[in-house]
Amino acid sequence: MGRSQETFSKKEVRNKKEKKRKEKEQKRAKKKSEGKKRSFDDMIAYVDEFGMITATPPDPDKKTVILAESIELKITKNNPETAPDFVRKGVVTFFNESKGYGFIRDLESHQSVFVHANNLLEPVKENNVVIFEIGKGPKGPSAMKVKLFKE
Predict the structure, then answer these.
(1) Which of 42, 87, 103, 123 has the most CB atoms around it within 10 Å of its CB?
(2) Domains present along the chain, CATH in parentheses
(3) CA 125 to mean position of chain CA atoms
C-alpha cells in the first residue's frame, strides 16, 4: 500500500485557501443581507475652483458666466523664413566603402552625422562636399538622400 501524495504543507495550503474562500462567501452574504444599495449620487465626485475633489456639489451662487467670445485662441502660423532648412550641406570626414558606412560633418552645426551606403544617391569619398537630409536612423540621426554638392 503506497503513501498518500499529499504532504503536510500541501494540506496546510489547501486548508488556508478553503478558509479564505469561506470568509469571502461570508462577507458577500453579509453585504447582501444588509441590503445597502449604492446609488449613483454616492459615486459622484465634484471638483471645486481650486481643483480639489469633494463630495459636495458646487454652490450655484458662486458660479461665474464666461462668454465664449471673450476666450482668446492663438494659433502660430509656420513662417517659411524661420522654418529650419531640411537640406543640409556637409563634408564627408570618413567613409569606408568595403563596410558601406561613414560620417558627414554638418557645416552649420559641426555635428557628425552617420551615413549608410543605402542612403547614397551618388558615390562619395572622403573630403567631398555633399548635400543631405537628416533623418532618424536606428541608433540616432542619420544622413538621408546624400549626393555631391555642385555649385
Answers:
(1) 103
(2) 87-148 (2.40.50.140)
(3) 40
Backbone φ, ψ for residue 32 (5° rounding): -65, -40
Q: What residues contact residue 103 under an 8 Å CB cut-off, 6+ apart?
A: 92, 93, 94, 95, 112, 113, 114, 115
Nearest Cα neighbor of 134 from 96, 61, 84, 97 is 84
Q: 78-106: buried (b, 16+ CB within 10 Å) or exposed (e) per residue? A: eeeeeeeeeebebebeebeeeeebbbbeb
Cβ–Cβ under 8 Å, residues 62 and 102:
no
Residue corresponding to grid cell 494659433: 75
- pLDDT tens, residue by residue, 83-112: 556 789 999 999 999 999 999 999 988 899
pTM of the model: 0.45
